[in-house]
Design a protein that fits this description.
Elements: E1 5-6, E2 14-17, E3 26-29, E4 32-35, E5 45-47, E6 56-59, E7 62-67, E8 76-77, E9 82-83, E10 109-114, E11 120-121, E12 125-130, H1 136-149, E13 159-161, H2 172-186, E14 191-198, H3 206-213, E15 221-225, H4 232-247, E16 253-256, E17 261-266, H5 277-290, E18 294-297, H6 307-312, H7 317-336, H8 347-351, H9 357-364, E19 373-377, E20 387-391, H10 397-406, E21 411-416, E22 428-432, H11 435-440, E23 447-448, H12 457-472, H13 478-481
Parallel strand pairs: 12-13, 12-14, 14-15, 17-18, 17-21, 18-20, 19-20, 21-22, 22-23
Antiparallel strand pairs: 1-2, 2-5, 3-4, 5-8, 6-7, 7-9, 10-11, 10-16
Length: 496
């Protein structure tokens, strides 16, 4: 790598270090040679002009905060001399600004499963879903017994227990959230079979859930209440055998790329996230949307500071107002607990070079590419429209990733600069934003976006697109190889 730094936009008054830079080391920006006045770690920012106190820090061509003291050319620019410009709620105006990157139609297909309701899955997994956390261990006993007869998971690609701590003593919106997310999972097209089982005395009653499910494929879903059977393990295994027999007839078929539904996520971000990984996901999103498919962006608090960019891409004024409500809802949520709206980024983000929430958000929202925002979904909603949707969920990795899965995303693309082993119950691909992480955590990382610093972006994008098509056709992710599957549900209210 020849360049020591990168300037992301000609308007920027900072550059990002591509490697650790020692004090008094020289960097070249355009035709100018600048002496770095102090040691700067890779991913962090260096001033390329003198910046007066209270003047803006410009990155990505936009303000990411202001200087809290005078900053000299060559100084390290970070939390010790920069503060956010953001505060409170804003009155937004609809100003459409859309410059969409469109890809040509692609004749490639993927091999997926067409379900009874017409939806398409990319896995034929078996889900065990407890209605309440106190019976989580029952699923382990049932699966252990079932696997004695079916060492290779039977007719299923994977057997996944969607364990969670909720369902007992929950009230109001929390109970509704638990029910919605569990029902979403039960009706996910990646599920070739589902066993939903309750204890019998919990607030989250199984019969109430069944009423809320609406139409479902009765061949693929079974129910059990543990307190009503003599042996819940024996009964559970018998129900899994019924599901296994039905799923044994399932076959993958060739399907157009318009059937893809992909979630866009980042976590453990660093100074390279907005340079490599997130722009790569943006290109993938634009490609999928160009083929008539669907992508979903969430983590609403990590839109703060970049929300007007998304609002300008609303497909119409109605969607613009939905985006405004999405943003303001989360600001009200923070305010209701007397918490600062702009406390983000996290300690790990800051260590990786992200200074303010604007800095983080302008990088995070690049995952959505350039496509128009077609729809806005509430927490627990499923995808309704082709194209790019925004989804209501927090920045928390576990909750937001699970929310994307519950929206019917067949897989999640998860960029990370610091690294994380977490995976939700659908295939979750980890994309490293830097090569060092990829080389260190090969058991976690599926694709290295750090190579964008050395390779042509179109070549890397094409390679990445093929990986997504292969994964949709059954290629196993690193987390699937290690059987890592988890579920997290948003909680807000009281517990009785």
């Amino acid at each position: 790598m020849e360049n020591k730094v990168i300037q992301l936009n000609p308007r920027d008054n900072v550059v990002v270090a591509l490697q650790d830079i020692a004090a008094r080391e020289k960097i070249t920006v355009g035709d100018e040679e600048i002496v770095v006045l102090e040691a700067v770690k890779r991913g962090h920012k260096i001033a390329i002009n003198d910046i007066a106190e209270n003047n803006g820090i410009i990155k990505y061509g936009a303000p990411i905060g202001h200087a809290t003291q005078a900053i000299q050319k060559g100084n390290w620019v970070h939390t010790h001399n920069v503060a956010t410009n953001l505060s409170g709620k804003i009155d937004y105006t609809y100003r459409p600004e859309l410059h969409t990157r469109i890809y040509p139609k692609d004749a490639r297909t993927f091999k997926g499963y067409v379900r009874q309701d017409g939806k398409v899955g990319i896995r034929n997994d078996l889900y065990l879903i407890p209605t309440v956390g106190c019976i989580n261990m029952i699923s382990d006993l049932i699966v252990e017994r079932f696997k004695q007869n079916h060492p290779g998971n039977g007719a299923f690609d994977e057997i996944i227990s969607l364990k969670h701590p909720y369902g007992c003593s929950q009230l109001g919106g929390d109970l509704q959230n638990t029910q919605k997310i569990l029902i979403d999972a039960a009706k996910h097209p990646n599920a070739g079979g589902v066993l939903i089982f309750g204890l019998g005395c919990e607030n989250n009653q199984l019969e109430a859930m069944k009423k809320q499910m609406g139409a479902y494929d009765e061949s693929r879903i079974r129910f059990m209440i543990c307190q009503q059977v003599d042996d819940e393990v024996e009964t559970g295994v018998r129900l899994l055998e019924e599901l296994n027999e039905y799923a044994s007839n399932d076959r993958r078929t060739d399907l157009p790329l318009s059937e893809l539904k992909i979630g866009l996520k980042c976590g453990g971000s660093d100074g390279f996230s907005g340079i490599t990984g997130n722009p790569l996901l943006g290109r993938l999103s634009d490609f999928v949307v160009s083929q008539g498919g669907s992508t979903v962006l969430t983590e609403v608090p990590e839109m703060f500071g970049a929300e007007t960019v998304l609002m300008g891409r609303a497909v119409n004024e109605e969607v613009f107002h939905k985006i405004v409500n999405l943003i303001n809802h989360f600001k009200d949520y923070f305010a209701s607990y007397n918490q600062p709206i702009y406390e983000n980024p996290s300690p790990g983000n800051k260590a990786g070079g992200i200074t303010t929430l604007e800095d983080k958000s302008l990088g995070c929202t690049q995952k959505s590419g350039t496509s128009a925002v077609a729809d806005v979904l509430e927490y627990g909603d499923k995808i309704r429209k082709k194209g790019l949707s925004l989804l209501q969920a927090p920045g928390n990795d576990q909750v937001s990733t699970s929310a994307l899965a519950s929206a019917d995303c067949q897989m999640i693309l998860f960029t990370t600069g610091r690294g994380t082993p977490f995976s939700t119950y659908v295939p979750t691909l980890k994309i490293s934003t830097n090569t060092q992480l990829y080389e260190k955590k090969r058991t976690w990382i599926d694709f290295n976006a750090g190579q964008l610093l050395d390779r042509n972006i179109d070549e890397v994008t094409n390679q990445f697109i093929q990986l997504i098509i292969d994964t949709a056709s059954g290629k196993i992710t690193k987390s699937e190889l290690r059987h890592i599957h988890e579920l997290a549900i948003f909680k807000n209210g009281v517990t009785e």
